[in-house]
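S.,

Sequence below, as promised.
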Amino acid sequence: MILTWGEPANYNSCEYISTDDFWDQCLKQCKVEADCVLVAKLETSCQLFRRGVVLTVRKMNSSSGKIVGFKRTIESEFCPVGDDPPLFGEDNVIEPYYSINVTTSQDGIPFWQFNIKCGNDSWLAFRGNQSVCISVRAFPSPYCENYEAARNICLENNGIGITNSYSDIEELDIRNRWTNSLQEIAVSDPNARIQKTLDLWADGICSPGGKNCNVTDNTLQSGFNVIKDYAKDKRCVFISPSKAGKYSAE
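The prediction came back faster than expected:
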C-alpha cells in the first residue's frame, strides 16, 4: 500500500471500518482482498473502495491532513521512494485489473483517475456511472451444478461474486456470450450433456409471489430485476439463453 495526501472525489460506494485500530485494519484488509484498490483515512474510521466504484482521487498536500492509500503492485522488494506517490513521476501505471493516470480538471485541480481493466475471460460493461467486468463461467464436466456452486465459481480467479443483468441490453449480451460458450463446450467435449447447461445462474432470490428479485450485487438496479409471475418464493434466478427474461429455479 502506498500512502499519500488526497481524498476520494468521485465514487459510487464504499465500506466503512470503525474498529479501534481501524486504519491498520483497513490497510491490511485492502492488501489481501483482490478487488480492493484504495483506502481513505477519516477521523474515527476509514473508507475501503473496490475496483469499479471509485473513479477519481483529488491530489492534496500535507496541510489538508487527508490520507489515502493506493494498492500498487511493486515488483521490487523495496518500496519506491520519491516526491510524487503513488505513481512516482509516471503519468500512468497499469495494475492487473485497473490502471491509474494523472489528470487535471478544467480549473487546474490535479486528480488521479482509476480506469477499470478486465481480464481475458471477461468484458467491460457500464452500469449507470459504474464500470464492471462480467464473465460467464461453465461448471466442470458434467457442467450442471446448483446455485450455491454457481456463487462459488464466481469467486474464483479474483471474481467478486455472482451477478445478474443490469438492463435488457446487457441481458441480451450475456445470453449471446453464454450461447457461444455452450458451442465451445460442444466442440471441446462431444459427450457433454449440453441440454443440462441451457440455463445460466444469476444473482437473486425471489420475493413472495416471485415478481421481484433480491440481489446481493450492489451494481444492479433494482427496477429491472423482475422475473416471471409463476415463480415461487425463495427460489433462485437464472437467465435463459433461448429467450429474454429472468426465470426462477430450484
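Residues 228-233 have pLDDT under 50 and may be disordered.

Coffee later?
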